[in-house]
Amino acid sequence: MHPKVSHLRGCNNAGFPQRMRTCHDVKQALRATFGFVLSVIIIAKNESHNLPRCLQSVQTVAEEVIVVDSDSTDGTPELAESLGARVFQRPFTTYADQKNWAASQATEPFILSLDADEALSEALLADIEAWKSRPPHANAAWSMPRLTHYCGHWIRHGGWYPDRKIRLWSAGAGEWKPATEGGMLHESWAPHDGVEVFEFDSDLLHYSYHTTADHHRQFAKFSLLGAEDARRAGRTSSSLKPVARAAFQWVKQAIVQWGLRDGRAGLRVAKWSAVAAFWKWNLVKAAPSHRAWSRVAIVRSDALGDNILTLPLAGALRRLLPHVEVVWICRPYARPVVAKSKVVHTIRVWEEANMDAEVEESLFAGVDAVVFAFPEPRLLAAAARAGVRVRVATGRRWVAFRWANRRMWRSRKRTPEHETAQGLRLLHGLGLPARWHFPEREDWMDLLEWHTSSAGDPVPEGLKGAVLLHPGNHGSANGWSLARFEGLAKALLAEGVPVVVTGSPQERSALTPWLERMSGTPSFTDAAGAWTLAQLMDALVQVRCVVASSTGPLHMAAAQGTPTVGLYRSVAPFWPERWGPLGPGEVLATSEVEAAGGLNLSVEDVLAAVHRVRASDGTQSV
Questions:
Q1: 9-66 tens-digit pLDDT
Q2: CB burial string 144-183: b at 16+ within 10 A, e below
Q3: Most CB within 10 Å of its CB: which of 51, 100, 504, 581?
Q4: pLDDT interval class at 478 (50, 70, 90)
């Protein structure tokens, strides 16, 4: 049993004793009488998924818990307060500086510093409880081994264990200092002269990587910070250095440090550590070019949906190179859609039929680098003639051999990787680890920002709660038959759900017989051919759900956060793995096709999916 202190005022709702502020002399008396009195400090940003485990692990040993938050957007500060912590807000500087500032807020004589993704093991908790009952050590610190949990496996080799860290010390016994060249990345606690360091034998648990995507985000972030550290320290890199460093890192972790003893998990750790080393030194090599660029262009000269799925590339450029102007080059019909995006600075329109070679060259005026998300031959040639120094394109098109000077060698047509992910890989040609920095749909959605409304005539009101059906797809993929769309509309209307039907003016003629039969039906809106693209973009935000096959409006709705039910053929190259919508909702896919070419998906199955999506919380299910 721990002794009760008369200065305690009960416990908060997490069980942490709520202690009155006392002066230094009283704290020393508490130490002499009752042993160790402990503050726990944690720095955090968007750690709501980790913080409860961390705080619960120290509940029985902490007299005070301090969380220093850096502009979290996931409710981390509120969660920390609800769990009994004192919360401070401070913009992130460096890890060492942030932790030193957190330590300066502690009011107890001893400090335990944890990361939000760490927790005390039961054995270490018992050791600390026993430690607290002993006579206090003045001017001392304690280290502990750290054991990392990686995608369901504990990693005990490859240089990741014992990974001993000093995390507990008497106040004023030392400070956090940068552990790498420039101070942006790793940090370590350094004792002052005369401070004795003791050791705990039990493990501090590190829950760092729940999925491979977590590792991708982390090593991409650390590669950027590590490169900045190296650059500030005056380090340079050559064309061979990234490859050599990656090979060395893999051999060291997998073989020299016995990472292979951890099985596949150990080999994955070695692999991604090698990739991280490659990108650190590749970023060092590319840094002079990145600083010199003022304007980077993205070319997407095909369909509306393709433009939507490529817009996260513009967001990635804004995040990774915030000083550059992002130029978007597209066809005229895509301009209203791209104009609604906040992540593009400038739009330049390519009018294929009305531009000669000289005018096409002017599209690339002032551009330092260009990424061809669609390798349009005429525009590739125009960029080369215009003198754009960096021209990135897929290496699997013949035109790239002649006009592109940085080629990405990866098959796109038969690879079950999403179009957005493959586009982000193209940014690797600019020396940016975009595919790894933004590995999943939630990251891609976070890269998109939209203007709230478009200029011009507003769309009709009263669309809230409606299901929007868009039957056409311009033949880009197998769609759902009009008869089944009609059956779905009737089923929804019978349940009292408003229905809106949209389509382009060219598609209206095919829809006319159905729309005439539905004319005058309550809660049925015929908007086929009635709205501009900008108005359609606004309408797609207002409705509750959108049902369509793989077509532009489906992607326009999903990218703005409206739940969708996407209807797909489950075979390459039409499969949803590559062309699925970015945002919330469901995808129904089938390999069966009707004689007329429509997808063989029943009205009942699609209706059930609509019900699930309308009742959902906005998550995606594929």
A1: 334 444 444 444 444 444 444 444 445 699 999 999 999 999 999 999 999 999 999 9
A2: bbbbbbbbebebebbbbbeeebbbbbbbebbbbebebbbb
A3: 581
A4: confident
Q: Quick check: 167 and 204 in contact, CB under 8 A?
A: yes
Domain 293-446: homologous superfamily in CATH: Glycogen Phosphorylase B; (3.40.50.2000)
> Kind of pairing, strands 146-150 and 153-155?
antiparallel
Beta strands in 419-466 (DSSP E): none
pLDDT at 18: 45
CA distances from 466 to 167, 460, 548 (A): 55, 12, 14
First to last CA, the chain: 52
**How would residue 622 be classed by pLDDT, with cut points 50, 70 and 90?**
low
Smallest CA-to-CA distance from 286 within 182, 438, 400, 406 is with: 406
Partners of 477 in the beta sheet?
A: none
List the one residue out of 506, 505, 527, 519 whose CA is nearest residue 457: 527
Show contacts of 234-237: CB within 8 Å, 24+ apart: 235/181, 235/284, 236/284, 236/285, 237/281, 237/282, 237/284, 237/285
* Closest to 605 in 3D by CA, of 617, 619, 584, 590: 590
Q: Give the fold, CATH level 3, of 467-621.
A: Rossmann fold (3.40.50)
φ, ψ of residue 30 in degrees (nearest 5): -60, -45
Domain boundaries, the chain: 8-209, 212-289, 293-446, 467-621
Q: Are 567 and 576 in contact (CB under 8 A)?
A: no
Same fold, 8-209 and 293-446: no
Q: Residue 231: which H helix or E strand, with range?
A: helix 212-232
Q: Which parts of 453-563 fold into alpha helices (H)?
A: 482-494, 505-518, 533-542, 552-559
Angle at 50 between CA 45 and CA 54, to 5 degrees: 105
Distance (Å) of CA 518 to CA 317, 490, 500: 47, 9, 11
Give the residue with greater pLDDT, 4 vs 327. 327
Q: Return all residues near 36 (Cβ < 8 A) that are at least 6 apart.
A: 109, 110, 131, 132, 134, 136
* Residue 269, amino acid: V
Nearest CA to 413 out of 436, 396, 391 is that of 396
Q: For residue 409, name the pLDDT band (cuts at 50, 70, 90).
A: confident
Q: Is the peptide bond before 288 cis (omega within 30 degrees of 0)?
A: no
CA distance 303 to 298: 15
CATH of 8-209, one of 3.90.550.10, 3.40.50.300, 3.30.710.10, 3.40.50.720: 3.90.550.10
pTM score, two decimals? 0.87
Contact between residue 45 and residue 117 where contact means Cβ atoms under 8 Å apart = no
